[in-house]
Amino acid sequence: MAREAPQELGRLRWRCRRGMRELDVLLRRYVDERYACASSEHQEAFRALLDAPDPLIHAYCLGFEAPPTPVLASLIGLITEAAAGD
């Protein structure tokens, strides 16, 4: 688990700004609450996820599309779990 510099977390927060407010909230919450403690595998998957188009990320989060790898599926579960904790 790599410890991220504050500048890197700021960049990730900026990249969480999407075209869909729902994604903004989900992704930003994950960065703020779980990213720093996540495994390096999940951190890498999260950075890769941010390169995906909004509709695909949205489909993953709603369960309309299955993530292509087990690591990404696990990450999506953590992201949506954080939202369900409200």
Protein architecture, described:
The chain has a single domain, classed as DNA polymerase, domain 1. The mean pLDDT is 91. With 86 residues, the chain is mostly helical. It has 5 helices and no strands. The protein has helices at residues 6-15, 21-33, 40-49, 54-62, 70-84. It is globular.
- Structural class of the helix and strand makeup? mainly alpha
Distance between the termini: 26 Å
Please name the CATH architecture.
Orthogonal Bundle
- Could you state the oligomeric state of the chains shown? single chain
Based on DSSP secondary structure assignment, what is the total number of beta strands?
Answer: 0
Strand content: under 5%
> By CATH's scheme, which homologous superfamily applies?
Flavinator of succinate dehydrogenase
Which blocks of ≥5 consecutive residues have pLDDT under 50?
Answer: none
Summarize the structure.
By secondary structure, the chain is mainly alpha-helical.
What secondary-structure arrangement, pairings included, does this model have?
Layout: H1 6-15, H2 21-33, H3 40-49, H4 54-62, H5 70-84
Give short descriptive properties of this protein.
mainly alpha; 86 residues; DNA polymerase, domain 1; 0% strand
